Structure formats: C-alpha cells, structure tokens
Amino acid sequence: MPHIVIDEKIDLFDFAKSFIPEFQKSPIIKITTIYVEKNGLNALFPTIVIDEEHQEFFIQLSTTKSKTTIRLLPLTDPIKTDGVKYAMTKIYFQIKKWKPDVSISKTNLADYIEKGIVS
Asked: What confidence tens digit (pLDDT) does each residue in 47-90 have?
C-alpha cells in the first residue's frame, strides 16, 4: 500500500486552513477539499484520478504523537496507478509548503516525490 510517513505530528486543523484545492490536467488529478475529524487525528481528501482508469477514492492523513501518515483509505482501495501515487504526493507537497521543515521518515513513493510533480 503506498504511503508517506512524516516524522512529526501535524496539526490537521491548522493544515486544513492552508489547504489549496488541487487540479492537474494530465493525468487528471482533482482534490477539492479536506475533511478533518472532530478529534483532529484524521483527515480525508476526496480525490478523483483519471489516467488508465477513472477512480474516485479518499486519501487519508492520520496523525499520532510522533508521526503523520499519508495513505489511501482502505475502504476505497483504488488501483495503484501512477496518477493515484502522484495524488498522494500532492498532499505531501502541500504539507511541505505549509511547514518546510518536515521530513519523511518512511515511504514507498520516493521516486514520485523525487520527480517533484507539483501543479
């Protein structure tokens, strides 16, 4: 399962205030909003990706005392195409722009992050 683990707790309520909707034309990636749970420990991003497939799914951002994880919500389980993986990196790049000092402690999307695909 694709994931990006950031080595610190992210305040999801503060991050939500700075979130900017994403739209990319090729492949089509659309992330329009963020929903943060009342407890501030999880957030969901409704996401549409159209590349080899037309897929609608949620990217989940979950945080604990020492880390924050970006992953696909297991209930929606899209096919892990390049577009889906790039969509996940867009959330990381928004976090990195909002809080430049964050770093990744673990990921299996390093190739996608290194390409730096940002709209």
From this structure: 999 998 999 999 999 999 999 999 999 999 999 999 999 999 99
Collapsing DSSP to helix, strand or coil, 106 comes out as strand
Note whether 95 and 7 are within 8 A (CB).
Answer: no
Tokens of 67: 């880390």
Does the pTM of the predicted model rise above 0.90? yes
What separation in angstroms does the CA of 64 have from each of 61, 101, 111?
10, 18, 26
**Sign (positive/negative) of CA torsion 109, 113, 115, 118?**
positive
User: For residues 25 and 27, what is the distance between their CA atoms, to the nearest angstrom?
Assistant: 6
Number of domains forming the structure of the chain: 1
Length of the chain counted residue by residue: 119
For residue 97, the one-letter residue type is K
The rounded distance, in Å, linking the Cα atoms of 82 and 52 is: 9
Token reading at 60 = 């989940």
End-to-end, the C-alpha distance of the chain in Å comes to 24
